[in-house]
Design a protein that fits this description.
single chain, 222 residues, alpha/beta, Rossmann fold, Jelly Rolls, 2 domains, 12-stranded mixed sheet, 12 strands, elongated
Length: 222
């Protein structure tokens, strides 16, 4: 099987802007639907390559229809150690994906939303570029020793939120309120509501983890 460069996963959360979600797909993407996320694919006229989960969110007739269309069905028991979304991420990883775009991961349940936001921080996904996209909002993760480039338009909101402890040695370029070898402390809000000064910004992190949230105020995301 040829190496998979990017996987796009449809989760079973809220898809706030279906048009922007559709526009985010590119030729060559492997599309994976996590259980009820298959309905998002159906509404957008997209045939997923894989449908994975315990299928408690789909009717048997829906599952049969996808199977009749040639979609690869990967069934898991209801009593399992991972959510359907994490099963989809693990499958994308097994296919050799080095970039994962997750759509529909937010908004329906707070417990699952919080868990989904934290998925990029799992150690086994350290080698993946994972991005969660919800209409004009995207979420990325910066790890120790990394440099992250953010894209958008001047005025777009950028928030840097420490995960798992304090984040040390943060240096930014291209943000309205710059940081220079500084620390953002876990559980505080200093890094919230910064702004892009140009179309790109850079965030360097020496130690810790930062959840980077970009809110785009104009245009659709791709």
């Amino acid at each position: 099987m040829p190496e998979t460069k990017r996987a796009v996963i449809f989760a079973n959360g809220v898809l706030s802007d279906p048009a922007s979600a559709r526009a985010a797909l590119a030729g060559g993407d492997v599309v994976i639907a996590a259980d009820g996320g298959a309905r998002h694919c159906r509404e957008l006229g997209i045939k997923p390559d894989y449908l994975i989960g315990d299928f408690d969110s789909l009717e048997p007739s829906e599952l049969e229809q996808f199977e009749a269309e040639g979609v690869n069905i990967l069934r898991h028991p209801a009593r399992k150690d991972y959510t359907d979304l994490e099963l989809a991420i693990r499958h994308a990883h097994s296919l050799g994906a080095n970039e994962i775009l997750v759509l529909g991961a937010l908004g329906r349940r707070w417990d699952q939303t919080l868990a989904n936001l934290l998925l990029p921080a799992a150690g086994e996904y350290a080698g993946l570029q994972m991005r969660l996209l919800d209409a004009a909002q995207e979420v990325l993760l910066a790890r120790s020793g990394s440099q992250l480039t953010l894209h958008g338009q001047p005025g777009d909101t950028v928030s840097l939120i420490p995960l798992g402890g304090d984040a040390h040695g943060i240096t930014t370029h291209g943000l309205e309120y710059p940081l220079q070898q500084e620390t953002l402390y876990f559980g505080t809000t200093r890094g919230v509501s910064n702004a892009l000064l140009s179309e790109t910004a850079m965030v360097q992190l020496e130690q810790g983890m930062l959840l980077c949230v970009v809110i785009h105020h104009t245009g659709a995301l791709e």
